[in-house]
Amino acid sequence: MPSIHAVESANRYHPHLQLPSYVGAHRGRVLASTNFVEYADSAWDDSSKKTDLFGPADFNLKDSVASKSLLSTDIGGAAYRPALATTLAINGGLPNYDLVDLKFDVESTIRTTGTILSYHDQYSPASFCYSEQECKTSKVKKILDQVKIRWGIDLPIMHVASLTLFDLNLQKSSTTLFPVENSEIQNREDVEKLRLQIFKDSGISGNVWEKTGLGDIDVYVGLQRHFDRRLRFKTIDISWIFGGIFSTGQKRDTTIVTSVPFGSEKHRVYSDLHIDLGLNYSWHAGIDMGIVLPATVCKNERIPAYKEHPMFSPLLIRTYHSQAMTVKVAPFVRYKNFFEGVHATMSYIYISHDKDLIMDARTDKTVASLLTRQESGLVDNHELAKAKKEFEESIAWKNQSLRLSFTYDPEYKCAKKWYDPVVSFAFDTPRGGRNSLRSRRFSLSASLIF
Length: 450
Fold this sequence. Notes:
Elements: E1 30-44, E2 50-51, E3 58-60, H1 61-74, H2 83-90, E4 103-123, H3 132-136, H4 138-146, E5 147-168, H5 184-201, E6 208-214, E7 217-230, E8 233-246, E9 268-278, E10 283-292, E11 295-302, E12 316-323, E13 326-339, E14 342-353, E15 357-360, H6 381-395, E16 397-408, E17 422-434, E18 437-449
Antiparallel strand pairs: 1-2, 1-4, 1-18, 3-4, 4-5, 5-6, 5-7, 7-8, 8-9, 9-10, 10-13, 11-12, 12-15, 13-14, 14-16, 16-17, 17-18
């Protein structure tokens, strides 16, 4: 039986933080360690096309300038103009930088390594009988022999490193503003200095981020039942668990573009159902179904002021964030013992996170965010409506992947020793999605079953 866990992280940046370890039916105490490496250098956008991890594939500096100016005019100030722009203009460079397109190609990577330490145990309900006679009645004994109570805890320890690079795309930019006497290298340097100045004025610093720490701790309890030769199947194993995800992982640093959260923003509750059907001695098929229930959290986050991407927004505000439900469906097929003690499993994993509700929690909304900004003569109202729609659509996300795993189980060896570990190797590859990472993941786990 593979892992029966739901989406522990409920996190679009680590959608596959699931245990690939193999836990067989009628097994007892399990002590496991799962080591994993995950790498991503692109994501799925709103239309399920390839894009950068932290925003659009091309970033327009003009959008950030327009938003900074809007925030200034909201409080009766003048249009935003960084001090560096004045210096460059005096020297003959970039006279109308805020009126033309300055587009950057954005390339980012996220590399995650870590281990998940796990302990799982099971008990027979017979051990909770009030009297020996109560357990001896034939009907009760039959049920107690087939039902197991399971509980467990998973502790992830993670190291995440991310990097974002900006490269001015001269073909997409309005190069007519560049002084003809300057070299291409000088023009690129001027624009890069300007981008860094605008980011600094927006409270954004750094393009490299690296953290080590705990992920979200997962604790669960559930029931497991085994049937022999029912409904034309050789075996049927059904497991149901109810668990909690404790938000102990690293949260996003709003001052660094490349920062990503390790897990959920809030403690979450989840439930998962696992069905394993033994078609014959070798072939099994089944499905994992899980949900992470909704939660609410108040937090500081970057919200667009106009049509800039949230990651590059100069507006950091307090929001009320009602997180929607996350659903997982993962059918699988397994061929057991195709080599002595080795099983192969192919899974298709579909994860869907519904649209969250985000509201501006500030009492003073004089400086408007995209959530509260109304049509006016200061903005292109068509662009404003388009930006609001795109922002709403970007909140929901989906992820589809294939997982191929191989498990060595010494229970199928002729001469098994108690300390022989169950060893699993798994590889996840992306197959589709929307507003989530295109990540590849390798994992290796070892489990001792007592």
